[in-house]
Amino acid sequence: MVHQSADSRLRFWAILAGLAVPIAFLTVLAFFARLWWVAELATHFRLQYAFCATLLAVGVALSRKYLVTVAILALAALNAAFVLPLYVGRQPSAPGPELRCLLLNVNTSSREYDRVAAIVKEGAADIVALLEVNGEWRERLSRLVDSTYYTFWEPRPDNFGIALLTRLVPIGSGTHYFGSGGVPSIACTLATAELPLVVLATHPLPPRNTEYARGRNTQLGAIGDWATRQTMPVLVVGDLNATPFSPQFRGLLTRSGLRNSQKGFGFQGTWPSSSPVLRIPIDHILHSRRFHVSSRRIGPNTGSDHLAVLATLDLQAMPVQPPGAGDQRLK
After folding, report:
1. Please, what are the domains in the chain?
2. Given CB 3.0 to 4.6 Å as the disulfide criterion, which of 20, 103, 176, 289 pairs with 309?
3. What is the pTM of this model?
4. CA atoms within 13 Å, Cβ hemisphere of 43
5. What is the spatial distance between Cα 217 and Cα 251, in angstroms, rounded to a whole number?
6. Helix/strand/coil (H/E/C) assignment for every residue in 41-75
7. Could you tell me if 63 and 11 are in contact, meaning their C-beta atoms sit under 8 angstroms apart?
């Protein structure tokens, strides 16, 4: 009987240790993300890897296999190291105009027009970016959304139409095609009490094959170059089809000097809305360092496969500097 019990414990910890193997494989694969788009897909689930590895380590520890436990815990810690920075570094709010921003990928095939209109109204946002907008979405939302918004539309029959709505007075706007993806982005310069700012609503291709991955990567790179040329504070809002753990996303931040509004507010996964376990953060609000993010949260389900992102940002006035001190193009 004792022998049978020992065999059961052996099988138990061996099964748990075996389950750690695919997690270890995906963790290692993720380090080759710059070389292969498939490897980049493995970067997006760092939180899930860390959570599952921790559970497995607890199970193995109960079988008193401590060396294996330590190895699995190290695997969990390695993945957690990518996630934990999202929970620290929140900037204190400071006096300045407060801007509310709402981002939602509505899902072209969805017909939940009333639910989307409701979240726009309830969010009372100054800036609203809606993605996957086709002609039907434009027609329905034009009737349902508050008439105080200035609206800019680039509807498409595929999944890459965009709408940008704003209560701030627009100074200028335009449609851009960044990189080789062939999908539109809307840029709009807006007036505020302090100084103008520029908002870019964008939706790169999903990296589902080599061509699409190249299109997304070139778009993110071109957006980074565009952001560096702006002399005003910048907001980049969109479904970037990349998480903060992707080297392409980190490259965009490095290239542009923009910050991730998620910083200090945690993981906040947005897609797929139907699966809290697999949900990852691919919908982003990026901002110049002139903005301070005072709040950021995920909205309710609107029938889309994405959840909305709602953020409140404080725009800081340009500090007075003596001649020659600092960069006057500070964003």
Report:
1. 2-86 (no CATH), 94-315 (3.60.10.10)
2. 103
3. 0.91
4. 25
5. 10
6. HHHHHHHHHHHHHHHHHHHHHHCCCHHHHHHHHHH
7. no
Residue 28: CA count within 13 A, CB half-sphere: 6
Q: How far apart are the first and last CA of the chain?
A: 72
Identify residue 60 by its one-letter amino acid code: V
Burial of 46 (0-12, 13-18, 19+ CB in 10 A): buried
- Per-residue pLDDT of the chain (331 residues), as tens digits, is 445 455 555 566 667 777 889 999 999 999 999 999 999 999 999 999 999 999 999 888 877 778 888 999 999 999 999 999 999 988 776 666 789 999 999 999 999 999 999 999 888 899 999 999 999 999 999 988 888 899 999 999 999 999 999 999 999 999 999 999 999 999 999 998 878 999 999 999 999 999 999 999 999 999 999 999 999 999 999 999 999 999 999 999 999 999 999 999 999 999 999 999 999 999 999 999 999 999 999 999 999 999 999 999 998 865 544 444 434 334 5
How many helical (H) and strand (E) elements, i.e. helices and strands, does the chain have? 8, 12
Cα–Cα distance for residue pair 309/239, rounded to 1 Å: 10
Tokens in use for 97? 């105009």
Phi/psi for 271 (5° steps) reads -145, 140
The whole-angstrom separation of Cα 117 and Cα 146 is 9
For residue 150, count other CB atoms closer than 10 A to its CB: 14
Judge whether 120 and 145 are in contact, CB under 8 Å. Answer: yes
Measuring CA to CA, how many Å separate 25 from each of 32, 35, 81, 130?
12, 16, 17, 37
Structure-token pair, residue 325? 């001190």
Which structure tokens are listed for 128? Answer: 């609203």
